[in-house]
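Handout, section 4.2: multi-component inputs.
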Amino acid sequence: MGTTQLESVPEPKYWHLKTVLSEALDQDFAVGEVLPNERELAARFGVARATLRQALEQLELEGRLQRRRGVGTTVAPPRVGVDVGGARHSWPGESTDGWEPVDAAEAVPGAAVLGLLGTAPGELVLAVRRTRVEQGQSVAAELLYVPAASVPGLSAIDVPAGPARARAVMRELQRLVLDGQDRSVELGSARADDAKELDRLPGAPVLLVTTRYFTAAGTAAVSVATYRADTCRLTFGDSGDVQITHDARVAS
Amino acid sequence: MGTTQLESVPEPKYWHLKTVLSEALDQDFAVGEVLPNERELAARFGVARATLRQALEQLELEGRLQRRRGVGTTVAPPRVGVDVGGARHSWPGESTDGWEPVDAAEAVPGAAVLGLLGTAPGELVLAVRRTRVEQGQSVAAELLYVPAASVPGLSAIDVPAGPARARAVMRELQRLVLDGQDRSVELGSARADDAKELDRLPGAPVLLVTTRYFTAAGTAAVSVATYRADTCRLTFGDSGDVQITHDARVAS
DNA sequence: GAGTGGTCTAGACCACGGT
DNA sequence: CCGTGGTCTAGACCACTCT
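Output:
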């Protein structure tokens, strides 16, 4: 009978921990400050290190913390708003939008990209690698798939490998008349090569932005951009410089 | 000397496991099929259960698996493409876009939403709850914040709580002339109430879509929509029904 | 080399869904 | 009730960064 069980559904420890830590971050820590190490924090809260780590992982996912092996855990700055699709209906690289060409090479796209491109499996496709730097740190890595048929003025292979070749491909691409584009965003985990480029461990959560570029002739290129999910807030339209502290939600 | 260490950087076990499982899913399993339970899988691969779980977690994050307590682990269908911002510059709820009004009530928005709304901390704000159902499952929960000042024809409080009241607020909102809107997408983790609505555990990864609705007078409303990151692919433009299997990327 | 976070183990118990 | 995934523990060792 009256066992007065106020919390019949006990909150998981790591969840409660996360809440406590979150409040501590708001009140007692400045951006960039380093937290005590995991072993000490675990001891301080009287939990196993694995449990503490579960809480830290969530806070990192939410962009509140930044952890680096061999260094420590620091309080992350608010997410940077990176504009995606701001200049609508324009080829990538037409303006200085923070993207840096890295290289270009032949590639064998996966089935998914092939489907979007609408090309036959054997057809020659170029892949342009670019990285996006925002406020001093690289926030995204991109692979831009361009069927060779889209860039007939193809002196690309003659150009020596490196940024110059990437730029050459993009220059050719920008000759075409862009009819439109569409985009999708989903959650993914960083592949080993992207992770390296983004200074994260493989498997780190990323936002996958897939863009299709249309001409009258069909799909001229497909871009798959990998954004760091912990540090980025993707913005559409002109809300790039809006101040958002960290989480716009509250209990109703 | 010649210790012939081909793999000087040994891949983590869970990473390798993930790759193996991923290939097995492609080849030997159909959508909806249930996998062997975690204890058996761990034994089969000769790893601890925690290690196996790390691999499963990643696959779930990527939308390849679906795990439910008390039930089991099943192969997830491809992510549903949910249109976001398709009908540009229109109030929410003006067309049948899959959103279902649930309720409306007074609310005390957090600092972040207040900043976006541009209202004073004490001002009265209404919060409209809506859920979005796509292909039979609810994929998103939304809180639409409307300053009382935006809807002067405020008979909302008189209407009995429930969907009717939510609809009443939205009807008032749609009277205004919409000047524009902007949007941002970021990664978050589900709050307890949203998690319940989305049939997930608290802390599940979600995509947070924040939309600001402008009139000439300023920001008339702010919406914070919480999408299931495991099952959703957010689409912008008209790429809603494009076939994407699961991951558009390949090694270059 | 010292100190950090990342990986891994082998257990235990709990909460939930179906029977 | 049983079987499932979810939480938690107390250790161990590894990979990395900085000094």
